[in-house]
Automatic annotation (TrEMBL), chains A, E:
Superkingdom as given in the UniProt entry: Bacteria
Keywords: ATP-binding, Nucleotide-binding, Translocase, Transport
GO molecular function: ATP binding
Cross-referenced InterPro entries: AAA+_ATPase, ABC_transporter-like_ATP-bd, ABC_transporter-like_CS, ABC_transporter_ATP-bind, P-loop_NTPase
Residue span, ABC transporter domain: 5-236
Record-given protein name: ABC transporter ATP-binding protein
Pfam families: ABC_tran (PF00005)
The keyword ATP-binding is annotated on this UniProt entry: yes
Automatic annotation (TrEMBL), chains C, D:
InterPro entries to which the protein is assigned, alphabetical: MetI-like, MetI-like_sf
Keyword Transmembrane helix tagged: yes
Keywords, comma-separated and alphabetical: Cell membrane, Membrane, Transmembrane, Transmembrane helix, Transport
Subcellular location: Cell membrane
CDD domains associated with the record: TM_PBP2
Keyword Cell cycle: no
Domain ABC transmembrane type-1: 81-269
Gene3D superfamilies cross-referenced by the UniProt entry: MetI-like
Annotated family: Belongs to the binding-protein-dependent transport system permease family.
Name the UniProt record assigns to this protein: ABC transporter permease
Organism: Gracilibacillus salinarum
Topology within the bilayer: Multi-pass membrane protein
Length: 259, 319, 285, 285, 259
């Protein structure tokens, strides 16, 4: 399989001397679904932003489909990003916000609108097409943002805690939808979450990070076949993975705290 | 004497006598009609030579400027004395502002129309069909409109800038012969001028005036001021040099040469006519009456004005 | 559930009707009472001050003098107003269009902005009287020059505010557009201009009040003569002829025009922004 | 872990040193090259246009004529510049302080704003020439009147922008202050003024370019009284004397002052805002 | 016990006809810790905002400590609110943001600073006192917001999904800290969460809501004694409650979906 994303010994140090990432090394292949788990402030968002070409490593290199991300996003728009905050244009309606990436790309307006309405229906916002972002609840805004990313049918999808503001039911529905889309479209997904269950449910691999400086502490391959319905949570293998991930996560932190 | 006055006035009761003595030095202000120039010579002479002080006055001379209205300043009491043109005095009177002329500086008006050399006007009727830079609302232009056929004049407001005149050979520009022709020459532009007074419209210019109320209540002060004023002019006529230096000091951007030119040319408008035999500043009722008639005819004046009302020579006789 | 929705709505409607009767008086009290009182006080003070200070009408006219003068010379004032309105509206449009286009151009490249923006400041800070002769030589005395001068006087607030607005785009939204590989013009059109709208409108509001002043100064400087002039010309003549009440009437006419113009632009701005910007939207709680 | 941190930092430092050598040329290229080229082009065009059109120096002077005139009459120009600088700085301060205070006052109550703001627009739109006589009578010819007129000319951009800024507070932050029962003045001081800063600075930037113009117009209208004249006076006298190159020199001097003043205010604005506002901060990625 | 918060048949209809709350009726006593559970967009934030006096019911009444909330916040500042988004002043440093409510209240500056530093240490941000909000990660911003609310030592604390952006470890630490503070200070807390475990762990009562229009569908008393250490999650009673709450939540929704 081809490499989709490669972090090559990446350091990221901000001007105020914060070391956000240190010696970060990870390769993600095309079609993978990798979840990032790690304490708050360990550099997950920073890593995703670099993949999207929105930040540059201080040392090392990030490659996306064999190119530097900046080059890549200048050629295509095959990357979509669900930011940690919804990041909607306040002067556009929900529908127009979702249409934005499609419109930027050009093409048949009717098709685009149909597609936008479809994804909005999927995230449960069919009744809010004409609403402005300020008229939405926090979870609804996040769902618009998710719809916007999905509508663009990207080859590489970056999601930064997309479901954190959602209730369990909505979250489960969207998890299944996301898995469906991922399999159908054969996209590559990098997904940040704090929810270990979610990470195990969704991913082919989990990248566990530790903080200060942000490092990759371990990588866990999740060997559960797809499709994975919600009911898989009762599967003992599932729970083993959950325990393993939690352990890696906590262990790392505890060791640090002990220091 | 300025400082002494100030300190004396702030002293206590027991110094009252001293205060009364120094109070004879009376502060007054005169607003000019433009930045200081040769045409204000005598006013500065009186200051430089100390004539005001001798007459018990502490005079502040405040130069005017493009938009400074001396009439309004005097009428509102922010200055006691002012300078305006004769016709402006009548225009003010027409608005109910009671002013009285005390002395005229220019016996004859130095106002003129300037043309490029080779494009002279013989008669003001020749202006018709040409471009004229003239101040909006100026009285003699209204008079001209009645006297000559100016229906085809391209009338453009004159704002003090001559660039467009210089750029257009055919154009005509309002000027004072005491100034602009000289400046044009300096730039190598040859010009001709034709005096407005050739048309028979010849107001007194740079007229010293006060309000009627002020005159009635402060006759002594007025008398003292006018006498210093006349004395200043008489001295200026004989030896202008120190005064011109002073004027250059006050208005440094105006060159010394320009001041001298202004004085040379101005002399022939100031110290002539009635000034020669009846003394500096003299005004005749007949000429005021003519002006009133001309302006009434031009429609500038709407109220009846008695010539004898508008001026007085009474304070000139002293010297 | 559908029923309960209707129920609820009808409950609200009832409440609304009860409120409606007092509505007119309430809005009047909240919105217009203050301004009306202020206006009355203003006029009263203006009427009284000259009387108390014993100022003559030719020095400081009372409102009654001004109204008198305006009525008497209405036949002069009215055409002047019309001319000035024409000039200022055109001046405003030219300024708005050129100002915004120029800002967009400058904002599209840092190098351009750094290289050219200083000349915009230069145009603003160089005294108009210094360049007026050249303007008149190039554009002829009269209308064209007035528009050019009015442009020079009021375009800087537009360009300055617009440029600031275009450079104040939310960083996260900017990232979004980078990510979607938006072209320069897509970014400009879909992100920077909408974000800048509040600033642009603020610039236009300042600029529109300068429109009337610009036209008047333009008339004054560009040498409209011979009675074809607008308020600027009238003011000059009134000043020369010491017709102070009429001069004030001209001034007040200009101010009223300016305020109306402002209110118009303000209304427009409000309509544009109310759906999303804090300064214009009615926050619902 | 502490070691690895040092290691990391030292790696970066090395990289930085390598870069430093090209740094000077790079900044020059990025920041100054454009403006320098633009300036050269501007001067060249200005030098050539009159030559090509065959315009005489007394109609449209070339830069060389202007420099000549400035050097020759430097002894006149320099004091005029000093006086104008004094007037405009004072005018700017008065305007800034009164403008901001007035906006804060108006913003503190909707009723006040609605009642009084129209008179601010009135002051802006009423032509200065119309009120000049009154100003001169009340404040005397010269300095004081010049400051007042300069105030009238440039205070509106401050008040208009400030008011808009004070009314553009983020709704959520506003809620926070409501919740914490912040007093009116706490809210003003800790929330509204900081939020409005970008707008206020934009207003001040516009206003500061109007400072020089304001001082010049002020001198033109209110005369110089008993004092020494500034650039406005010089321009008037130069026009009468047909010293066009010197007139241009005055104009350019005014423009240079204006630009310097702008840059100063801009710098100040940058320092104030750079820690948080998008328009000023260097976004780090 | 005295009433702390009372919703009395509250309806909330926004101008665009969205019915956010309908017939909402709930009384919270002083010293209670009530969690709100409900699908995204069901009106949880709206309800909390009304308690804080930041919104008015369309019908019905909200009372806080026996007063209308507007009155109350005009008299005291005993209410603190952790908004759904961090809501920090961008021009103030982390420390100054936390100091804000204290400064508004007045008093000894040194004491206030000590207190602010203490809570910031508690939320794990001791090293970021001088950082600006834009230099923080999403979870760190939220923690600043939490610190700001806790520093004010309110009588009534409203928290709108405060821990959603935090990793499990940080979340657990803060949950325990919150319970500690709640018991020590005897405050009343209304807490919105999507995490059923969290709701059961923290609350004395859970208010389960359903969407469109937002209604109170059931109230569950959690009868587990305090203190509740993290280990309580293994307690069967705990899991019973979790199941009950999940059921209520899902049941309601499923019924709706079936419609
Ligand atoms: N623009 C910036 N300037 C300075 N420091 C920054 C900046 N952005 C992030 N950081 C720092 O980098 C570190 C990592 O931040 P990042 O946003 O990647 O964390 P995260 O893993 O996404 O955390 P969270 O789960 O809380 O979102 C943090 O310590 C943060 O303070
Ligand atoms: N200002 C507003 N104008 C119009 N509608 C609004 C406004 N604020 C909220 N709403 C609507 O009210 C409903 C409830 O919103 P609320 O924010 O209370 O939901 P929530 O329960 O907090 O959801 P979440 O869990 O997603 O944050 C939503 O349908 C939303 O669209
Ligand atoms: Mg993050
Ligand atoms: Mg919410």
């Amino acid at each position: 399989m081809k490499e989709a994303v490669a972090f090559k010994q990446v350091d990221k140090i901000f001007n105020n001397e914060t070391i956000a990432l240190s010696d970060f090394d990870l390769t993600v292949h095309e079609g993978e679904f990798v979840c990032f788990l790690g304490p708050s402030g360990c550099g997950k968002s920073t890593a995703l932003r670099m993949v999207a070409g929105l930040g540059e490593p201080t040392n090392g290199e990030v490659e996306v489909f064999g190119h530097s991300p900046k080059e890549l996003i200048q050629d295509t728009n095959d990357i979509a990003f669900v930011f940690q905050d919804a990041n909607l244009l306040p002067w556009k309606t929900v529908l127009d916000n979702v249409l934005l990436p499609l419109r930027l790309r050009g093409g048949s307006k009717r098709e685009q609108k149909k597609e936008a309405v479809r994804v909005l229906k999927m995230v449960g916002l069919a009744d809010y097409l004409k609403a402005y972002p300020r008229q939405l609840s926090g979870g609804m805004k996040m769902r618009v943002s998710i719809a916007r990313a999905l509508a663009a049918k990207p080859k590489l999808l970056l999601m930064d805690e997309p479901f954190a503001a959602l209730d369990e039911i909505t979250r489960q529905t969207l998890q299944q939808e996301l898995l469906d889309i991922w399999q159908k479209e054969k996209m590559t997904i990098l997904f940040v979450t704090h929810n270990v269950f979610e990470a195990v449910l969704l991913s082919t691999r989990i990248a566990v990070m530790s903080a200060r400086p942000g490092r990759l502490s371990s990588v866990i391959d999740i060997d559960i076949p797809f499709p994975r319905p919600a009911s898989i949570r009762t599967n003992p293998k599932f729970n083993e993975y959950v325990d393993l991930a939690s352990e890696k996560l906590e262990g790392r932190q505890e060791r640090e705290e002990a220091k | 004497g300025n400082e002494e006055t100030g300190s004396a006035e702030t002293e206590g009761e027991d110094q009252k006598e001293a205060t009364e003595e120094t109070a004879e030095i009376e502060p007054v202000k005169i607003v000019l009609n433009w930045f200081a120039q040769a045409g204000h010579g005598g006013i500065y002479t009186a200051d430089v030579e100390g004539y005001y002080e001798e007459n018990g006055l502490d005079v502040t001379i405040e130069p005017g400027g493009p938009q400074v209205s001396s009439v309004q300043m005097v009428a509102s009491g922010s200055a006691e004395f002012g300078l305006v043109h004769g016709d402006q005095l009548l225009v003010a009177k027409n608005q109910g502002i009671d002013l009285v002329a005390l002395a005229a500086i220019y016996q004859n008006s130095p106002q003129a129309m300037m043309t490029h050399k080779g494009h002279e006007i013989e008669d003001f009727g020749d202006i018709n069909g040409r471009t004229v830079f003239i101040q909006s609302g100026i009285a003699y232009w209204e008079y001209f409109k009645g006297q000559y056929d100016l229906s085809n004049v391209n009338e453009i407001a004159f704002t003090g800038d001559h660039t467009n005149f210089m750029n257009d050979e055919e154009s005509v520009n309002q000027v004072y012969v005491t100034g602009e022709p000289y400046f044009m020459e300096q730039q190598g532009i040859e010009t001709e001028t034709k005096l407005i007074s050739d048309s028979g419209y010849n107001p007194y210019q740079y007229v010293l005036y006060v309000t009627k109320d002020y005159l009635e209540e402060n006759e002594e002060t007025v008398k003292k001021f006018v006498s210093a004023f006349v004395e200043g002019w008489n001295h200026f006529k004989e030896s202008p040099d120190t005064t011109l230096d002073e004027i250059h000091e006050v208005n440094p951007d105006m060159t010394m040469e320009a001041n001298e030119y202004g004085m040379e040319v101005g002399k022939d408008f100031i110290f002539v006519g009635d000034a020669e035999d009846k003394g500096f500043g003299y005004m005749s009722e007949e000429r005021w009456a003519t002006l009133i008639d001309q302006l009434t005819e031009a429609g500038v004046l709407e109220v009846e004005i008695e010539a004898s009302d508008i001026f007085t020579n009474d304070y000139l006789t002293e010297s | 559930m559908a029923m309960s929705t209707t129920e609820l709505t009808s409950k609200v409607v009832k409440k609304k009707i009860n409120v409606k009767q007092n509505r007119f008086w309430d809005t009047f009290r909240a919105v217009y009472l203050g301004p009306v009182i202020a206006f009355i006080l203003f006029i009263a003070a203006w009427q009284l001050v000259p009387a108390i200070l014993g100022l003559q009408p030719y020095i400081f006219p009372k409102p009654s003098d001004v109204i008198n003068a305006a009525v008497t010379d209405w036949s002069l004032l009215w055409p002047a107003i019309q001319i000035t309105v024409g000039e200022s509206v055109l001046g405003f449009i030219v300024r708005g269009v050129i100002g915004i286009l120029a800002s967009v151009l400058l904002a599209s490249s840092k190098v351009l902005e750094r290289s050219i923006y200083p000349y915009a400041i230069l145009l603003q800070t160089i005294p108009v009287v210094a360049v007026a002769p050249i303007v008149v030589i190039w554009f002829g005395a009269g209308f064209n020059s007035i528009i050019v001068i009015s442009f020079l006087i009021g375009f800087f607030p537009v360009i300055s505010n617009t440029l600031l607005g275009l450079n104040s785009v939310d960083k996260n939204l900017d990232d979004l557009f980078t990510l979607y590989n938006a072209s320069k013009w897509q970014r400009m059109w879909r992100l920077r201009i909408p974000s800048a709208l509040p600033y642009i409108m603020a610039g236009l509001k300042i600029s529109c009040t300068l429109s009337i002043v610009g036209a008047i100064v333009g008339e004054y400087i560009a040498g409209i003569g011979g009675g074809k002039g607008g308020i600027g010309y009238s003011i000059t003549v009134a000043a020369v002829q010491v017709k102070t009440p009429y001069l004030f009437a001209c001034g007040i006419a200009a101010a009223v025009l300016g305020i109306s113009f402002y209110l118009l632009v303000n209304l427009f701005s409000h309509l544009l922004l109310r759906s999303w910007h804090e300064s214009a939207m009615k926050v619902e709680k």
